[in-house]
Amino acid sequence: MSEALANLLNETRQFPPPAELAANANVTADAYDEAAADRLAFWERQAGRLAWAKQWEQVLDWSKPPFAKWFVGGQLNVAYNCLDRHVEAGRGDKVAIHWEGEPGDTRTITYAELHRLTCQAANALTALGVKAGDRVAIYLPMVPEAAVAMLACARIGATHSVVFGGFSADALTNRIQDATAKVVITADGGYRRGKPSALKPTVDEAVANCPSVEHVLVVRRTGEEVAWSAKDHWWHETVETASTEHAAQPFDAEHPLFILYTSGTTARPKGILHTTGGYLTQTSYTTHAVFDLKPETDVYWCTADIGWVTGHSYIVYGPLSNGATQVMYEGTPDTPHKGRFWEIVDKYQVTILYTAPTLIRTMMKWGEDIPAGFDLSSLRLLGSVGEPINPEAWIWYRQHVGGGRLPIVDTWWQTETGAVMISPLPGVTEAKPGSAMTPLPGVVADVVDDQGQSVPNGGGGYLVLREPWPSMLRTIWGDDNRFIETYWSRFGAGASGGGSGADWIYFAGDGAKKDDDGHIWLLGRVDDVMLVSGHNISTTEVESALVSHPSVAEAAVVGATDPTTGQAIVAFAIPRGSADTAGAAGEQLIADLRNHVAKTLGPIAKPRQIMLVPELPKTRSGKIMRRLLRDVAENRSLGDVTTLQDSSVMDLIASGMSGGKSDED
Ligand code: 6R9
Questions:
Q1: Three-state DSSP class for 581?
Q2: Ligand 1 center to residue 512 CA distance, Å?
Q3: Residue 597, in any domain of the structure
Q4: Is the residue at 473 inside a domain?
Q5: Range of 630's domain?
Q6: What is the CATH number of the domain that holds 592?
Q7: Number of domains in the chain
Q8: Whether the predicted model's global pTM rises above the 0.85 cut
């Protein structure tokens, strides 16, 4: 077998940018040429979009790969760049955040107010003994204080570690201990699915096992009763009574900004470390370039949680450093009704919407009548992140959210990359549904085979990054060896023993292919690739084939051990709202779906078995946890479910299985 990954799906639709957007785009095709001519000079110009207290002496120091230093010798303050400079420029009255609580309560926060709140929080943290370089854990719901807490840490040079509000006491304990956090910022609780959901008891349980924690700052959100200890301080009594004056000190470009633990499927979470100057340069530039953000007129909304890297880069640092007006929403998309997202778009006249394929597929499942009930005409650009977006979901998004006219930017990146790396430029690229298209200017990505050789157009393999980029992770917190091993030892110099002159190649862990035009298609995590009768088949392509059937909203496929083919494809499919799946109709649908996949991708990709299920197991950022489905498909007891968004879905799947099985041919 020669191919690293089979190339089965052939998608020919293509959508040019709307003429008006192209004519007024922030970034034009010239950017690709400029970056290709001199990549470091290109990034240097993007760094110049920020306010620096001290100019750098060197753009990139790559003399000790894979440890990079960007903008060496430069100094800046991240919070100053996100807040003070907008206020100083007379934009203090501009709305920074339109916050919408799940129960319908709202707050409108201007840049001047966000600045004052951040100064107060910076003063309060300093009074609690937090100094530059100390770690602060943040475990909050989607309330404005989450952004304030992050910015306050950045302002005083403390390194924040945001932990998803849905994680267990164990997960929180591990993360606090790994970073030896001195302070935890939390809330009594938040609202989820129409009711208060407590957070403080989880923190109490974790802190009992975390001797490093000296203080806990507690935001009052739900007003529910909480236990109280000597370490606890109410946010409204400490932060909101502190001085609103605080002079931001500049920090070195390589000063640690945050640690974010990847929701990894393996035992020990990896604390991904990001630093100051390069991270802000690239998050800020990509917000400007990929979303074509016009701070004076756009209303931007990223639906991610702040505990995901997307919330860090594209709610807090990217949009605020550009002076954007944005929406922040606390709750779930179906509370109190399934049109909540569209109601919010209409209410705030959102122009740019950035969400995840999982949400789009959920909306497909609920049916297009729901978005059709709202006025979405304010929208001008749509974005997607987190997983490959299936071509059919892409088309649905464009049709039923984008009125059949809006550009979609499918943005590939990772916690590790810090910012978007591969994406269309909305004013330039003729996008293909399901493809992230091309590396952004200044980014050098490639698809390689097992030997690390670049694959020709039409070939599949592994996604790699060939050159360092400003917002790259600097290491895994406390574990340089694991950093080298995980990302730099598969290909290039790191695989052949190192050396600073040789090429270091970053291994992203994703399968990908180049189509005949050289455009990049992401094919899912390489750990999930299925080996069927000697062919490497990507989960994404089979899932996309299933989703292209009119009765399927969402699908996940896994390879299960099979006596004849090595692995066999087992699929889990969620029917669309309208599909009839009872009894014989369900059996018929399963038979149709198997044939549909065989017809779309070829007989090699025909699933052995398809189960119709009501839900799929997902992480909090919406990624399907195929590992758990593999357990189901191979009749094993379930592995670690701590990062699952809703553990009851595994029961639902197990109970739905008996009726939905299909026998082999
Ligand atoms: C930003 C984020 C990273 C992994 C990544 C890949 C998948 C993200 C994608 C995508 C295909 C896209 N991924 N965006 N796959 N197309 N547009 O999601 O970070 O949570 O660290 O996950 O997500 O597999 O390697 P993170």
A1: coil
A2: 12
A3: yes
A4: no
A5: 533-665
A6: 3.30.300.30
A7: 1
A8: yes
